[in-house]
């Protein structure tokens, strides 16, 4: 099926994935869908969230008629990928914490995992650690406050640096450990949007690893029919989002519509 690439997230975090996809495929067509009425996903109960993700993705697929769905959300992917693949007839590319590349990059074998409350605890995340980072110490930090700050940033506000610093304090402590953490997995797609602030606040230089490039490569593998960009990329939201319009336009999504859920 020929159609755009549909990028889905709870909110604006998927824009960090959209940025990587546009770098890899500058001429491809993209749509964006977000469930901002249910944001943040990272503190929601699993079974209700699974049902909600499937419902929103089905509606978004029906509205966009994409060739591939990119679930640009670690919290959604580590929970509902299997269900989405069962329900949808198009390829579904997920986003999961970049534990494997982080383990390959870490010299000290001490890695930080910065993600939502849900993602740091998920069995899927533990499986990734068991498969790819068995010999590493993992410091898990749930930082849901960063999701809200990244949303505000896309809305045109400056992040609250004091709030960021408080959320990141447990991560910085790991840089003082006897075997110091040298690499941090950005296990939530909102967090790469805040990377300049993360780098500025870090007490020591760190390797920051996200999943953007790996997802872009995977999209190229699952579809050979990336249709050419024609006109504006459209964005579907589940709640009114006029304040996000300018921010979305900065990532190439100019047309904003309300997603109707059946
Ligand atoms: N952007 C999402 C992720 O990658 C989660 C944000 C949220 O908690 O809604 O996990």
Structure characterization notes:
With 262 residues, the chain is of the alpha/beta class. The chain folds into two domains: 5-95 and 213-258, Rossmann fold (3-Layer(aba) Sandwich), CATH 3.40.50.1860; 99-210, Rossmann fold. It is built from eleven helices and ten strands. The chain has a six-stranded parallel β-sheet, with helices on both faces. It has a four-stranded parallel β-sheet with strand order 6-5-7-8, with helices on both faces. Strand 9 (233-237), helix 11 and strand 10 (253-258) form a beta-alpha-beta unit. The longest helix is centred in the first third of the chain and has 19 residues, at 46-64. D-glutamic acid binds at residues 9-11, 13, 39-42, 73-75, 116, 119, 147, 188-190. The site of D-glutamic acid has 17 residues, from helix 3.
General shape: globular
Tell me the radius of gyration: 18 Å
In DSSP terms (H or I, runs of 4 or more residues), the helix count works out at 11
Helix content: 40-55%
**Ligands present:** D-glutamic acid
CATH architecture of the largest domain: 3-Layer(aba) Sandwich
Summed up, the domain count is 2
Q: How do the strands of the widest beta sheet line up side by side?
A: 4-3-1-2-9-10
Order of helices and strands: EHEHEHEHEHHEHHEHEHEHE
According to CATH, what is the topology of the largest domain?
Rossmann fold
The biggest beta sheet is recorded as:
6 strands, parallel
- The structure class reads alpha/beta
pLDDT < 50 stretches = none
Per CATH, the class of the largest domain reads: Alpha Beta
Number of strands: 10
């Amino acid at each position: 099926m020929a159609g755009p690439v549909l990028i889905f997230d709870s909110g604006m975090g998927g824009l960090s994935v959209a940025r990587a996809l546009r770098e890899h495929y500058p001429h491809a067509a993209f749509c964006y869908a977000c469930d901002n009425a249910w944001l943040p996903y990272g503190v929601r109960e699993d079974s209700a969230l699974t049902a909600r993700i499937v419902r929103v993705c089905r509606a978004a697929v029906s509205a966009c008629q994409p060739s591939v769905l990119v679930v640009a959300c670690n919290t959604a992917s580590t929970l509902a990928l299997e269900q989405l693949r069962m329900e949808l007839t198009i390829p579904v590319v997920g986003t999961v914490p970049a534990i494997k590349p982080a383990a390959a990059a870490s010299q000290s074998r001490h890695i930080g995992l910065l993600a939502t409350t849900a993602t740091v605890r998920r069995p899927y995340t533990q499986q990734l650690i068991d498969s790819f980072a068995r010999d590493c110490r993992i410091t898990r930090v749930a930082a849901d406050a960063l999701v809200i700050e990244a949303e505000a940033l896309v809305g045109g506000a400056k992040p609250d640096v004091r709030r960021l610093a408080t959320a990141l304090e447990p991560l910085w402590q790991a840089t003082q450990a006897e075997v110091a953490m040298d690499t941090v997995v950005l296990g939530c797609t909102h967090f790469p949007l805040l990377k300049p602030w993360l780098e500025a606040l870090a007490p020591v230089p760190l390797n920051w690893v996200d999943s953007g490039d790996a997802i872009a490569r995977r999209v190229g593998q699952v579809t050979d029919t990336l249709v050419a960009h024609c006109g504006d990329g459209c964005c579907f939201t589940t709640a009114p989002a006029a304040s996000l319009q300018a921010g979305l336009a900065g990532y190439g999504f100019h047309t904003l519509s309300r997603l109707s859920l059946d």
